[in-house]
Amino acid sequence: MLSAPRVIIIGGGASGTLLACHLLREPLPDLRVTLIEPRDELGPGIAFSSPSSNHLLNVAAANMGAFADEPRHFWHWLVRNGMLPASGDAEPFFFAPRALYGTYLRSLVEPHLTGDDRPGRLSIVKGTCVDVAERPSGVEVRLEDGTSVLGHVAVLATGHEEPRQDGCHVSPWVSPSVAGVDPDATVLILGTGLTMVDYVLSLLDVQHRGPIVAMSRRGLLPQAHRRVKPLIIDAADVPFGTDVSYFMHWLRETIAWAQERGDDWRSVIDGVRPHTQRIWQSFSESSKRRFLTHARAWWDVHRHRMPPEVDARIKAALATDRVQLIAAKVVATEPRGDGARVRYRRRGARQEEVLDVDHIVSCTGIVTNPSETKNPLLRALFASGRARVDPLCIGLDVTTDGALIDRDGHPSSRLFAVGPVTRAAFWEIVAVPDIRTQCARLARRILNDTAASLAATRP
Q1: Per-domain residue ranges for the chain?
Q2: Where is each FAD-dependent urate hydroxylase HpyO/Asp monooxygenase CreE-like FAD/NAD(P)-binding domain found (predicted)?
Q3: Per-residue pLDDT tens digits for 360-406
Q4: What is the pTM of this model?
């Protein structure tokens, strides 16, 4: 029987590392946290592993602190380590390279690591988790190599799943030069959001000469950040529990009112941000479906914006035809030599067009069916019924405090999840400011529940 709190976090990217930070922040000398991660590095994950200095955070440094009660923690870390540009000022509107944020996350947990000469509270297990079994007094996490790790609770922090990479499909998170993309190749990017923006920057950085085509159903680009102050919106003024049409009407009316006063629409979107998860949770299932079908693209490009300097590069590439943006739906894709022939239909058109490409890069975001995941742990949990896909089919079905819901609709007291895999319950749970708040709440619940459980078993 375990005599001290033991928490197992499956996934050592940003979500898992942020949860570890919140757990280890508590002055509990007996607490032990185990992080299971197959990659060599702890902290960056997919989101913050890019080595390119041109891949910037999409949130200003002043709001990227790991802790909700210290939003400028990352900013202060940059100051202490001399990593700010010469133009940095006391009110930072600065978008740092993503790799720096990965370094920052590692710096927060490294002092807690168990080493040859120190008994730390954090242990790293390099490996792939393939299953989790619930026991009367805890959980047993099984690894691909046949070993197991025991704990009181396990938290899934598996983050974003990498898209298909077979045939002519290449990963948006691998440099084009590393992936073997010929400088003269025709590249089709599916999706026109922030992941597409990063991949276009990667192509421009390696002096790509071939055609670059970015395609999505609406052909919308992310808007650019501007230096604005969020509008203070009282919860009493937010139309919780209405349908999507009414909510979007209210949002447009609020933006129009703010602009009449001389404010920017960004102030309204940022002012709504503290309420977005509650808004999502107040929607009916049918309203959520309508949002995903009709409003998601509009919301995403206004809510998830790009740094001004990135916006300038993308606009310049579009203006000089180095990049072509098409609003269209892919009808079919078939192999053609080493590439593919793509048939598509432009928005509002009936006639199909054909595009021969050498590479396809999927930047569409949400996995359309999580039950078809390649992740062995999720497959095992679905097969055993200890987890299920949410009704919208965009993530794990979890409670509002992150507990996994099993096949029969029962929440677990020992299996939890954080980060993007919980998007069905929260929707806005991909950015650090949202994930850190979720991690703070879950850490408190885990520590309280574990303490109560241990107290009940002591003689």
Answers
A1: 6-161+368-457, 169-223+306-362, 235-303
A2: 8-160
A3: 999 986 555 677 788 999 999 999 999 999 999 999 999 999 999 99
A4: 0.93
